[in-house]
Structures are given as structure tokens and as C-alpha cells.
Amino acid sequence: MELALLYSGGKDSSLAALVLDRFYDVELVTATFGVTDDWEHAARAADALGFPFDTHALDRAVADEAVERMRADGYPRNGIQRVHEHALESVAERDVDAVADGSRRDDRVPSVSRAFAQSLEDRHDVDYLSPLAGFGRSAVDRLVAESLEVETGPSEEITRADYEGELRAILADDHGPEAVGEVFPDHEQTYVRGPTE
Prior knowledge:
With 197 residues, the chain is of the alpha/beta class. It has helices at residues 11-20, 40-49, 60-73, 77-91, 114-124, 137-147, 163-175, 177-183; strands at residues 2-6, 25-32, 53-57, 98-100, 127-129, 148-154, 188-195. Helix 2 links the parallel strand 2 and strand 3 (53-57). Helix 3 (60-73) packs across helix 7 (163-175) and helix 7 (163-175) crosses helix 8 (177-183). The longest helix is centred in the middle third of the chain and has 15 residues, at 77-91.
């Protein structure tokens, strides 16, 4: 069975790929608005883990809408949630049996409600899987430490192929670099270098 996993090159989506690999033919897919070319490191991470990789174009209007929402809210949650749902919808239109992401039990954003998951499945005739949904942060961190070589650092220093990087770039272009700090809290990102030796 063919599965497209939304892939950032970070620890959560990489761990999700390892979990699903036993049951599906997993392709790692970076959904992008074409704003940056930061997806290249995700391609390298996918290659290091031995998975096929592809990019998938998203509707730029959704990114612009999300940025304006985040700016109005003063925080990123609703904008990132909108983009994540758009990415799942868009990737579900590929010729696949299932779509998945690396969201965890404790994630505040993105999250996928039961209603959205069921609607996605019904409308696109795919299965939606979130293999880390039962895992808390500590459990994920332990599993990652056992299986993946990971680099960690502040969002501004770790380049990943996720929505946040492109949304930050659009926000800076449209409203100035200071707007990024007004909307996004400081936090750490991860980048997968490959499997542990």
C-alpha cells in the first residue's frame, strides 16, 4: 500500500516514517509553497534514512491567508493549523492509499481532529494515519535517541522543510523581520542527519 507522509526532515516525521515502514510503501513528501528551497535538506534526510522523497506544491493563497491570520492573532497556532489541513487535503489527492503526518499526542499545533480525519478519509478515499498520536514528547525523545542522529537548535538556525519556515519568510517579506518575533515564540527545531550507527 502506498503512503505519503508529510515530511519536514525533523525527528517527528522521521520517526513516523520508521514506524510506518513495516506496513506501507512510504514516500516522504515535503509540501511547499515554493517560497524557499529549504526542502533540500529534507531530501537529504530522506535519502539518509532510505526513503523515496518528493515535493508537493501547495496553494500560495493559503499561505498568505495563514500569515494574515497569524499576524492578526499575534501567535502562529491558527495559521499553522490551516496550512497543515490544506497540506493533508492536497497530498490526499495524490495516487496513494494513505496519508500521514508526524503529529504527537502532546502537540498543540498542528493537530488533526477526529472529525477532520474522518472527513479527509471519506472525501479522498484514503486512510489518515498519525502513528505518533499515542506518544508523548518524552517517549518520542527516547525513541529518537535510539534510532536517529539529530541536530537541535533555535528555529532561526535550523533549516527544515516545514510550514513554519515558509510562513516566517512570507511574514518577514510582507510585514518586516520584526513581525516574525512578534508572532513566533522562541523554540527549538530538529533536523535529522540519518539513522544512529
